[in-house]
Amino acid sequence: DKPFVLFGGMNVLESRDLALTIAEQYKEVTTKLNIPYVFKASFDKANRSSVHSFRGPGMDEGLKIFEEIKQQFDVPVITDVHEPHQAAPVAEVADVIQLPAFLARQTDLVVAMAKTNAVINVKKPQFLAAHEMRHIINKFLEAGNDKIILCERGSCFGYNNLIVDMLGMDEMKPMAPVIFDATHALQRPGGRSDSADGRRAQAAQLARSGMALGLAGLFIESHPDPDNAKCDGPCALPLDKLEAYLLQMKQLDELVKGFEPLITA
Amino acid sequence: DKPFVLFGGMNVLESRDLALTIAEQYKEVTTKLNIPYVFKASFDKANRSSVHSFRGPGMDEGLKIFEEIKQQFDVPVITDVHEPHQAAPVAEVADVIQLPAFLARQTDLVVAMAKTNAVINVKKPQFLAAHEMRHIINKFLEAGNDKIILCERGSCFGYNNLIVDMLGMDEMKPMAPVIFDATHALQRPGGRSDSADGRRAQAAQLARSGMALGLAGLFIESHPDPDNAKCDGPCALPLDKLEAYLLQMKQLDELVKGFEPLITA
Amino acid sequence: DKPFVLFGGMNVLESRDLALTIAEQYKEVTTKLNIPYVFKASFDKANRSSVHSFRGPGMDEGLKIFEEIKQQFDVPVITDVHEPHQAAPVAEVADVIQLPAFLARQTDLVVAMAKTNAVINVKKPQFLAAHEMRHIINKFLEAGNDKIILCERGSCFGYNNLIVDMLGMDEMKPMAPVIFDATHALQRPGGRSDSADGRRAQAAQLARSGMALGLAGLFIESHPDPDNAKCDGPCALPLDKLEAYLLQMKQLDELVKGFEPLITA
Amino acid sequence: DKPFVLFGGMNVLESRDLALTIAEQYKEVTTKLNIPYVFKASFDKANRSSVHSFRGPGMDEGLKIFEEIKQQFDVPVITDVHEPHQAAPVAEVADVIQLPAFLARQTDLVVAMAKTNAVINVKKPQFLAAHEMRHIINKFLEAGNDKIILCERGSCFGYNNLIVDMLGMDEMKPMAPVIFDATHALQRPGGRSDSADGRRAQAAQLARSGMALGLAGLFIESHPDPDNAKCDGPCALPLDKLEAYLLQMKQLDELVKGFEPLITA
Question: What pTM value is reported for the model?
Fold first, then answer.
């Protein structure tokens, strides 16, 4: 568990070229910092606020890009699926498949994903308590897959705001490896007229708060030009800050994982 | 808009016989009280807490039961769909098709439902503000369907609790006809070890609070034996209280819809 | 309990003349509608957002105005106290003394108020659950006063927003008579640069939702010119709408209190 | 700002002897770790859940204990005041005086505290957003005191639960030095039949999350036997874990304050 694993990349596959550029940058930085790395991108944004929002290249083209990235940079890949029929073909390419937060209770999707035998990244829904994640884990176990990762991305706090419950995230650690999605947790849902707003300026602070818990992993999305990203730019880490950001997280992770156990109960 | 329409029935189609019993009771009471009535039941509970939870008879068998109910009682039917491919076949039988709260932002499902040209009942997600429902309506409009109903069923309030924002429900009235799901709003999500708990004893009180706003409709689920219902019994109105309950709601609805307009801005 | 009692008046005693004008209007309307009436105003707004905000005439001058109003209109009076030493002198004039929400757990203030033997109106803090009100009632009981009224005025919902938990308000009914403060519950705390904002346009809707529960009382603040009120104008009912508003509430109250008991547990 | 200052001690002054024991332990550990230290205790718990709860020795006796501690251990002292008349006498002994969260908007108390010219520790109310703290700071400035510290202790999250909004805490840093009250933030308000419960077992984790932001200070309460503490034992750090706990916090603080500035806006 030392150091953390990084699930990092971009929000949606805006283009093959941009995906390669971003993957290259992550690969270079994580190699330098010696951080285990998995490339993340979405081939389809299936729940954008508006029907006009950019959705991505779709599954078939997306999988081709993932294959190219895997081959060129020798990295595993994580991506999200939205319907049961996508699970098997996606898991042929992706090493980790992700269950989206809003869909985390859809039994058919859970079962289809479990059957691929891939590692599963479960995004914790914004409307569930930590202890309720046990139900979702149990669904995967019943369907024969115990390779579960739990991913925190914030909880609803009133309208149009998320809050990260650090005690809740800590509470999930005995259930499964916990990954902190430190950029989506910056969202202000519904904060713009047709999309979510975000608190990009506080990206490092929130990530530090989470990583201070001593977590299995960190999940982030970056963009070379966040103001012009096609999705979730207000939350994206500027790509040129990646190395400085990860260096902080690695030092923090090493420090807290080196602490002696401290029982205060 | 006077009186309100009732979307009423049962949670999941436990059996054909029980569905017929319940539909008969609703039909009789709503005829007596002169309340426009639509029979509601689900053929599949696709997002239960546990993989062992009862899910229902499935789409094919469910549609047969709906056809029998429509024919026998001469009532329209509403049911929910969970995947895009279900929209068309379900809309051939159901008069109103329902978009589940957790799925309300899945663009493909929205578009598939819109294309059926059926009336759409959109369950308001527990994590959205009233003003954000405009985005979902716009998706339907873009896809060519303007027959939208918005259905309030409570908002996340901390963990394992829902609250109905009466001002928010009122705020949606200029957007579309608003229906109050007054039994699901009684839920305490995650309140039992493997399912939601509920506040059945307060069923009439919560419904009265909502109906006092002067709404287009009321949505309820009943059961002849709530303690042994296969899903959401803790929120189900006991079937033998249906008439007394609806009589209250009708009187309340008539009173508030008869009030003179009162501008306090 | 039929009809409800009205605690109505103005936010802060802006002037003797305005207080008399407002009291006269309330007296006239409540006499006409046959609603038991208690005049409400504050002599000091002790917790405004800004030190420059208008606070009122203070205790001594305020009590003189209350005496004049009591004499001239033959009405009881309710006002709030903020420090233990104010309880006794205020209770010599006021018939009901009010414990402010933010101060509801200050033991010394509770005990000083209890000892006056006045009727006590406890504003429910925005940060407490219904079941926690039992602790505050118990403090009063221990101090020898059981004449307690509980007053709902909304719960914190994220930042800068209040929500009225109708099920929670209903849950308090077995503990004590419950009064709904239907204008403060319209607040958006911190919604203006230096004060709270409010949803005055929805004043009647929110009040109707609450009164549909069948409550012991209603608490409102009015102003002849809300846009120029010195405190909480964004929540104040325009004084010229008082009669139309109360007529609605009375009809609603009569209807729901006439309902047969309906047990749905 | 390196290292952080520690406001540490006990909840309520249970006895002179226990206060001396605790102060000695803090003094010894903070000297060893070279952490600037201020002794904290309350002479009166003025807002306990029950009238039977232990309140403390009162102001006069409390101030004597503080004087003895100051003299014997050569440490400054912080304590909280609840009524305006307490501000001046308390500030003659205490170096920092604290404005309680529930009272943070009481103008008379703010002004009385400001006039003492003491350093002020403002507990952030559980019902305010970070940006609203500006109003409270402004009240102190208007009253002539700019020596303000802001102290985070969690925000209401539904009923009977607190959550620490790390982004909100970070947002307050440009306004004033920010101190994290990392033990009260463990509370589950109303979580026991007659008092608050707490998550003592997670004391170090929550503190680490907060201190990872790079804060001016840390505020904690300890007890040699938390299960038998007279107030807030469920949140108290066991006294024998103080050194190990502070060593973690100091290392973390040094690390994050040594990071290069990282602009991600």
Answer: 0.97
